[in-house]
Amino acid sequence: MLRVAIVGCGKIADAHASQIRRIAGCEIVGVCDTEPLMARQLFERFPVKAHFSDVTELLRRARPDVVHITTPPESHFDLAKLCLEHRCHVYVEKPFTLRVADAETLIALASRHGRKLTVGHDDQFSHVTRRMRGYLGGRPVHMESTYCYDLGDGYARALLADRQHWIRRLPGKLLHNIISHGVARIAEFLSGDRPRVIAHGFVSPRLQAMGEREIVDELRVLIQDEESTTASFTFSSRLRPTLHQFRIYGPNGGLVLDQDQETLIKVRGTRFKSYGEKFIPPVTLAGQHLGNAFRNMGAFLARDFHMKSGMKYLIEAFYRSIADGRPVPIPYREIVLTARIMEVIFDQIGARQPEIESIQRYAEVDEDCLYGIA
Question: In what order do the strands lie in the sheet containing 89-92?
Answer without folding.
Answer: 51-52, 26-32, 2-7, 66-69, 89-92, 117-119
